[in-house]
Every structure is written in structure tokens, then in C-alpha cells.
Design goal:
Structural class of chain A: alpha+beta
Number of helices of chain A: 14
Radius of gyration of chain A: 27 Å
Strand order of the largest sheet of chain A: 6-10-11-16-15-14-13-12
Largest interface: A-B, 111 and 112 residues
Strand content of chain A: 15-25%
Shape of chain A: globular
Oligomer: homodimer
Helix content of chain A: 25-40%
Distance between the termini of chain A: 31 Å
Order of helices and strands of chain A: HEEEHEEHHEEEEHEEHHHEHHHEEEHHEH
């Protein structure tokens, strides 16, 4: 048994002194041949190890370079230094692994840029920024499971590989075990997918919703939390080819139930991070202040990160219809001064500039927009009585844009079939989906939350590549 | 707001009477034009709704067929019938969705086979067996997150799409957006993967371990819980092409720490299901008894499902070395009577029949086998001092076989490089993996648990296709 250590987070949390502990971690700094700051990833805070002068060989001390790994045993004593209440007076010090200072790619004193850190994503977890981001990401993920478990939702693993390409949410990646050379062909020259692994053409899922509805119409309430994929050539700070999505689906629910759940859910997971990751969030708040110092005053956030999160927790999300949203835009000074690049009129799919105006300028808080024109939304959304709009909802967040997309689902078989026909969705491929409307159909609703966009919002990071461990984007699939 | 209901599980848990409730769910049975059993998926138990004779139209009552969905409001009263303490005396009854009894594919009175239910996997959640299985699956998944969260492990989402095919864990699926017709080619005729979405050839991951090690050597302890893939043509009751895996990875840990964690972990999640899903497990135990009545006495389980789980909770896993395991096999009556189909000698990769003998006949409990010959294990496993074996561990479970595979990892750069060379693993593709050994390497260890095999073990189901929502196997990717 090697792992007889106390984690630094736990050690710092107790202010007890006088006992012996073993700490293991990586060297952050070594000052005056005496003060060794060790980090073990449990927190951004280091434990200070004090080496008495003359106690250890010079040769050993020379090896205490950044990121060398050490095992230290010693007594916990009150610290005289500022910034920590306790420190460890070393009795024994062992170097587990050296780190060649010349070659180590992460020289923190050089303040590596986020762009550079993406190139060494295998090492960036060792920085304070990414330590904080990924511990917050962990907490948000755990809070998501905790929230749904407490409410009695069943966690459903919907399939990743799918033969159904009917959802129309975007471009899909092909999954295949057929070769490009000597591809099996039918007599007419087309590819013979019967020879493929699954006996048909298959893709990576863009959403687990349709299968989620199968679960909800049996268990009542389910959620998914899994990877989803888009083969879209979008090289932006908000898009990934592989990202994680949470999709709750609730039987016996309408659009208002859906909005209530989404708002409660978002507040719950933010509150959980505030309660459990306060230090990490404060670090990230400070990081954001520093980052924004590079920007002109007018472009800086009005609120700090913690303030922003508290504001979201303490205020109701604004709820407006799409029609109201268009009216607000048409009456806005921005519109009158022709500051919008894209057209504004009823029926448009709102552009980022419109959403940002609503959220960041007009309401200055998260906004739920409902009842969109049917022509810009998916076939499964419930048609409203006006015959023109559907019971959809998007939640728009300041600085991020769309963070949630959802709807009440069309539970009426005839309406659904008519809509599928209009939109050229092949009913024969979705016989199983239609069965839920044939046998005990119920009003139901659900939404999808893009997990990385939520992590962006909570951490104040600005590029989505910095909140997922190893981002997959066009021309990039490193590590 | 539509969702003003009490879930059946919650209603049955309280024995309070005299108040009014609204219940929504699906009809299970309707007897004597009077007793309506309604299920909402929160539990296998139904709430009995009592309809006073003459209170509702005959035409309405005729629509109360299996799986019709209903909304009932009424008073909770003590039940005179057996099997339940309370029932609901209906005041209002609304049919939300009809279910044509002639067409409904799931006629429970016919005792549909598990094979048939796989063909209607979109409806099988509505049976008691699959209700219980997927609620237990949910609880196990939640318990996994709870266990690691309490221990301070960071949940890491390792990539699903990967360009690294060096792990050698099995056949991989290709992920591509290149067309089969008019595939871009290099001058030498080979496929030009620079034109593919990620600018190189990519596959679906077979394991998140290598990336997990990158996390562990920064955060100390991490775990993954995500889908993994094998493009292997194995049409067995234990193999899936898409399955979920949990992979914890711990810095500052050796093989013994790894075994301790795995055993504690498995017991924790079983205990959680026992505490939170007792009714479902008792139902599944009874189901298993019924299923085994079809088998000859000698093939039936010695223990019932609940007994088996309690036995695992209350006993230490047996820990033996591979060398000891081979000795036990060589000295077994089965070997002496030539009952093994495959050869037994030091160096073999044990076959299922050998593992089953050890677990089911010899020890009759979970067994951890350690220190396998290096030639049958992966390149990243730590070489023992004997130069012949590696610090690997497999956990074998009765009735299931291998449920966990893990090892202490080779943290010594020279050893790892030598092993990669011997096994033809290209070092240039894994430069990032080797960097963890270059910069502050530490003793570390981890394992992978196949989630569906664990669900099989806990639910007593015997075919892995029955414990994942929509199984992906050769020639099958329905729903």
C-alpha cells in the first residue's frame, strides 16, 4: 500500500497542528532553498513544506524543480508566513519523479496563453486556471446527477451510434467498419451497407431526445447525460464537434412545467458550485478581471463572475414570447439606428446579435423565449392553437447565447404525422417513436442543455475549447 | 402548468388517507369495471383506483385498456383489498391517450419472452422486469458518481472520438465525414485523411485510460464514466459494440491500493442499490427463481439474488496471484478428469471455463487475480521485479466473469519505452502520454469496470442486451 497520504485540501481545511502527516504532490515553487510549495490537484492552494537549512543534501534540493513529484513526511506546525495558517516541517523528503526544468513545457512564470495551453492540453490541468475550471466542471456534473436523482428522474443512456438520421439537428459523422478500398457495393454501384458492422448506415448521435421520450413515456421522468456530435465546420469559440449534453424528458408536463424545471435546474447546479467550489470560483473571478483589463472599458463585464452568478440565483428568468421578443427588437434604439446586421421581422431565426441585445442590453439577465414560428423549429414540437407557432423554448444567457433548447412535444398522432410529412421526415424510420403516440400518449416536454456552454457561463471562460478536457474541432483531435 | 401530480411511489410510501390527490400514469389492468391499476414508472407497484359503479360512462370505461394513459383525481382511502394499504376513490377520470388493445404490442398476459421484448425495446420499459432493471441501473450509476465525489475524484470526460489507436484494446470503429464515392486520395492512391473532418484518421474510443492518466497526474484522482466501443463480431450474451465503462485512475497508488479501491467501490454501489431499490431487487430475485425453474436442478444458482448480493457485501474478495490460480487449476479434479477444453499451463490467457472454475466452484465468491504474465497484458502495465509478470489485476465475478480489469501503471520512463518498443506501440503517437513520465512521474494505478456487466451481476439478468436501453450488436442498431 503506497497511498497513505492526506490530500492538501483536507490538510488545509483543518487547522490542527502537532501531528505528523504524509503529503504527496508536485512542486509548484521552491524558494530560498527552504520553502517548498506542493500542489496535489485537490485544490489550487499549495501546502508549504519547510526544509531546515542543512537538513537535506544539496544534490537533492537541486532536483526540486517545477512539477517534480515529491513525498514528504513531517509535522504540521503553525505557519509564520502570510497566506497560510499551517505548514509542514519536513522530516523526510523523497523525490518520486524528476522534472527537467529545461524541457518542462509549462513554465508558469512566463504566463502561458490559453492558446498555447491548448497545444499542451495534457499538461494544462497543472495550472491554476484549468485546475479550477475542471474542478468546477466536476461539481456541475455531480450536481446534475444529484438534482435529477432527488427528483426521481431515471438516468437513461441513450445510444451513441444510431441508424436514425431523422432528427435533423445537424450534420452527422459516419460510423463504419467498411474499408475505403474495396468497399462492398450493390449491383447498382451504391455502397452495400448490409455489409457494414450494424447491417445499415450508422452515424454518431446528435441528440438522445427521441429515445429519451421512449423512456419518459414509461418511467415518467428521465434524463440523459452523454456525448453528442456535430460534423459542422464551425470554427468558433462556442462550437465543438464533440460535446456533452443533458436532456431531461418529462411525461405529464407542458411548456410551463418545462420552463419551471429548467430554471430550477440551472439555479440548483450554480448554487451547488457556489457552495462547493467557492475558492475555485473566486480564483476564476479574479482571472476574468485580469483578462478583461486587456479590453476597452466599454467591453468589460458590468458584473464580476461571482456577482453575475448571484444575480442569476436571486432573480427570476425573464419569460417572453418570440412575438414579444421581435417587438422589443423592432422598437429598440439599436434597430432604429440600423445597428443590426441581419433583418428583424416576425418569422426570422434570431441571430446572435438579436439574442445578445435582448439578454445583455434589454433585460440584463437570462431570458426564456417561447412560442417560436413553427417553420424554424423541429417537427416534434407541439403546434400551438394559433397554427403558426410551436410550444418551444430557448434559454438565452448573458455572454453565452443559447444555453437550453426545449419544447413541449407534439403528443397528438395526427398532428405529428402531418408535420413529419410537411417536413419530409420519413415516418417508416420512426415507427417506434410514433408508437408512443399510439399507445397511451401523454402531454410531455423536455429540453437539452449544452454542458460546456453551462461550464463557460459558470467559470467565466470565453472559449469552449478551454472547458472540455480534449476539444474536438475541425482539423483537431489531439490526445 | 399540467404537472400537478403525486408520483405513485411517493403516494404508496405514505399511509396517510383522507386527502385529495391527482395521479397520472398508464393502465396496467382494469377489473370488474371497477378496479383500475395505474402505473407511472416510479415503481413497479400500481396504485389502485376505485371507480364507483355507475359513476362513469360505459363508453369511457371501455377505453380503459392496457397502457391507456389516465389522469385521476380522488380521495386517498384505506384499501379493503389485499396487496395495498391505500387506494384512490376516483372523483374525476380523464383519458389522456387511448391504447388500441388489438394493436398494442405488449400483451402482458402472454408473458412475452425477453427475446421478443428486445424487438420492441421502445416498449419494454413498460414491463415490470425492465422497470426494475432500469431503475436499478439508474441507482448504480448514481452511486458511482456519489462514491467518487465523496472521495474527491474529479469526473473527467475523456474524448469519444480519438486519433490514437495505440491502446490495442480491440477493433475500432472508424469515424469519418469522407464519402465512399469520390473519396479524396493521395498521389499514391491511399485515402487522403487530411481532407477528413479532423484532418486525420479517427476512431471511436476503446478506453479513456490513457487520457485519464493525464488527469490523475494533475488532479491526483480522477474517474471517467462514458461510452466505449468495440467493433468485434462477438455475438454473445456478454458483449456489446457500445457499452459504458467507469475508469478511475489514482496517482500515488500501487496495485494493493487499486484492489482496495475496486473492492470498496463494488461493495458501495451494491449496498446503495440494496438500500434504495429493495423492492426492485426482490422482484428481480423472484423473476430469476422463475427463470431458473426452466433449468435442470444442477444448473440453478445455489443462492438467490439477494442472498448473493449480501454474500458479496459481507465477504472479502479472494486475492490470488495468477501463478496461484494456475496451480489451483492444475490440481483441480476438473483438470485431472480432463474436463477443461483449453490447455492449462503457466503463460496461458485463462479462458472462461478456467475463470468460472475458480470463481464458481473453487472459491464461490469474487476473486481478484493479480500479477499476470507480461506477454498477455497491455504495454502500460508495471513490470514486476521478477521481469516476467506485471502488476495487473482482474476481478472475476460469479456468473459474469471478468468485471474489472486494472493495473498499476508503468511509471518508469525507460521501462515503458522499452515495453512499447517490444510491443510495437508507436512512441511518436503517444508523446503526450510519455510526458507524464518525463515530468514528475508518480506511482499510479487504475481500473476499468464494465458498467453493463455490473448491472447484469446486480439484477440477475443473463443477457447483456437486457440491461442497456438500446443494445448495439453486430447487425443490430435499432431505435
Amino acid at each position: 500500500m503506497f497511498n497513505k497520504r492526506i490530500k492538501v485540501k483536507q490538510l488545509l481545511a483543518s487547522e490542527q497542528t502537532g501531528h505528523e502527516v504524509t503529503v504527496m504532490g508536485w512542486v509548484r515553487t521552491f524558494r530560498n532553498n527552504q520553502f517548498l510549495a506542493v500542489n496535489d490537484g485537490s485544490t489550487n492552494n499549495n501546502i508549504q513544506i519547510v526544509l531546515e537549512l542543512g537538513q537535506f543534501d544539496e544534490a537533492l534540493l537541486k532536483r526540486l524543480t517545477t512539477s517534480a513529484s515529491v513525498k514528504v513526511t513531517g509535522e504540521v506546525v503553525p505557519s509564520m508566513g502570510k497566506g497560510q495558517k499551517i505548514e509542514v516541517k519536513a522530516k523526510t523528503l523523497e523525490i518520486l519523479g524528476d522534472s527537467d526544468a529545461e524541457k518542462y513545457p509549462l513554465q508558469l512564470r512566463n504566463r502561458p496563453s490559453l492558446e498555447y495551453l491548448r497545444e499542451i492540453a495534457h499538461m494544462r490541468f497543472r495550472t491554476n486556471t484549468f485546475g479550477a475550471v475542471f474542478r468546477v466542471r466536476h461539481s456541475l456534473a455531480f450536481a446534475i446527477h444529484k438534482f435529477f436523482n432527488e427528483k426521481g428522474f431515471v438516468y437513461l443512456h441513450t445510444p451513441i451510434i444510431t441508424a436514425s438520421d431523422a432528427e435533423g439537428a445537424g450534420e452527422m459523422f459516419r460510423v463504419t467498419s467498411l474499408p475505403f478500398d474495396g468497399t462492398p457495393r450493390n449491383e447498382d454501384g451504391s455502397v452495400n451497407f448490409k455489409e457494414d458492422f450494424f447491417g445499415k448506415s450508422t452515424n454518431l448521435t446528435v441528440s438522445g431526445q427521441l429515445e429519451g421520450e421512449l423512456g419518459a413515456t414509461a418511467f415518467g421522468e428521465i434524463y440523459t447525460f452523454g456525448p453528442t456530435f456535430r460534423a459542422e465546420n464551425s470554427n468558433t469559440a462556442r462550437h465543438l464537434a464533440e460535446f456533452w449534453m443533458i436532456e431531461p424528458e418529462m411525461a405529464f408536463s407542458d411548456l410551463e412545467d418545462n420552463m419551471n424545471l429548467a430554471e430550477e435546474f440551472i439555479k440548483y447546479i450554480i448554487q451547488y458550485a457556489m457552495d462547493n467550489n467557492r475558492e475555485d470560483l473566486e480564483f476564476l473571478a479574479q482571472r476574468l478581471v485580469e483578462e478583461e483589463k486587456q479590453k476597452p472599458q466599454a467591453e468589460r463585464s458590468e458584473m464580476g463572475l461571482i456577482e453575475k452568478l448571484e444575480f442569476v440565483l436571486n432573480n427570476n428568468f425573464e419569460r417572453i414570447t418570440y412575438t414579444e421578443a421581435i417587438d422589443i427588437l423592432l422598437q429598440s434604439p439599436a434597430y432604429k439606428k440600423k445597428k443590426f446586421q441581419y433583418e428583424v421581422k416576425w418569422g426570422i431565426d434570431m441571430q446572435s446579435e438579436h439574442e445578445r441585445y435582448l439578454v445583455e442590453k434589454h433585460f440584463k439577465k437570462p431570458v426564456i423565449v417561447t412560442n417560436y414560428p413553427k417553420d424554424i423549429k423541429a417537427f416534434y414540437m407541439r403546434l400551438n392553437e394559433d397554427g403558426k407557432t410551436v410550444a418551444a423554448m430557448d434559454i438565452l444567457a448573458p455572454g453565452i447565447g443559447e444555453i437550453v433548447g426545449g419544447s413541449q412535444r407534439e403528443e397528438r398522432l395526427e398532428n405529428l404525422e402531418a408535420r413529419m410529412k410537411e417536413m419530409h421526415v420519413p415516418a417508416e424510420d420512426l415507427w417506434w417513436y410514433l408508437d408512443t403516440r399510439r399507445f397511451g400518449t401523454v402531454p410531455h416536454a423536455g429540453f437539452g442543455l449544452g454542458f460546456e456552454r453551462m461550464v463557460l457561463f459558470v467559470t467565466g471562460m470565453t472559449n469552449i475549447r478551454d472547458v472540455i478536457a480534449f476539444p474536438r474541432t475541425p482539423k483537431t483531435a489531439e490526445f
